[in-house]
Design goal:
The protein is an alpha+beta fold and about 200 residues long.
Length: about 200
């Protein structure tokens, strides 16, 4: 059962949030946030709002056919003192990988360059890379929340002070399409896949 409200948010590039929001991709790659308590990223909250961020986004870290998406995201009007939440996500599965070739196999399933994915893998090489498979939902209505200084910094998780109403959540992808995408990703990694 999906919640009616949410306070927890996960920061991600605005261009990546756009890809998740339109069903272009269903995965995130995570190893850690600069200011996480123990330097390792952990899925401490399996359900969260997608918090679009605008720092560190670079065209050359995106595949050629997604660079225009970043330009469009940056051209969209936005208020610096507000955070606009439009999507909610639920982690359906987390897959840990430690081999570089597995990360290479994920190339068709995300908008980033192979170099970006490799850099994620190589950061803190003793730790495996977490592949988060997300079921993403449209909020019934976008919600603007005042930006507070404590939301800043290079942390992954942000506890929003006010409950954000989610309304009637609508999945970005149908059950069938989502399962097909999960199977494609698992197939790329050489894992057993479920029924479509």
């Amino acid at each position: 059962m999906l919640p009616e409200y949410c306070q927890m948010a996960l920061k991600e590039w605005a261009v990546t949030v756009r890809a998740l929001a339109n069903g272009t991709q269903i995965l995130l790659l995570r190893k850690g946030g600069i200011h996480e308590t123990d330097k390792d990223f952990r899925v401490i909250h399996p359900e969260f709002l997608l918090y679009p961020t605008y720092e560190h986004q670079k065209e050359d870290l995106l595949k050629d056919n997604h660079q225009a998406d970043l330009r469009q995201v940056l051209e969209e009007p936005r208020q610096e003192d507000q955070i606009k939440f439009t999507h909610f996500a639920k982690v359906e599965e987390t897959i840990q990988v430690s081999e570089q070739d597995k990360v290479d196999y994920l190339g068709p399933h995300h908008i980033w360059t192979n170099e970006y994915a490799v850099a994620r893998m190589r950061w803190n090489p003793m730790q495996p890379l977490s592949i988060l498979l997300l079921r993403v939902y449209h909020l019934e209505n976008p919600v603007d929340v005042p930006y507070l200084p404590e939301y800043g910094g290079c942390t992954s998780w942000v506890d929003i002070l006010a409950d954000v109403p989610l309304g009637q959540l609508q999945p970005v992808l149908s059950d069938e399409k989502f399962q097909h995408r999960v199977n494609e990703i698992k197939g790329s990694l050489g894992m057993a896949v479920g029924a479509n």
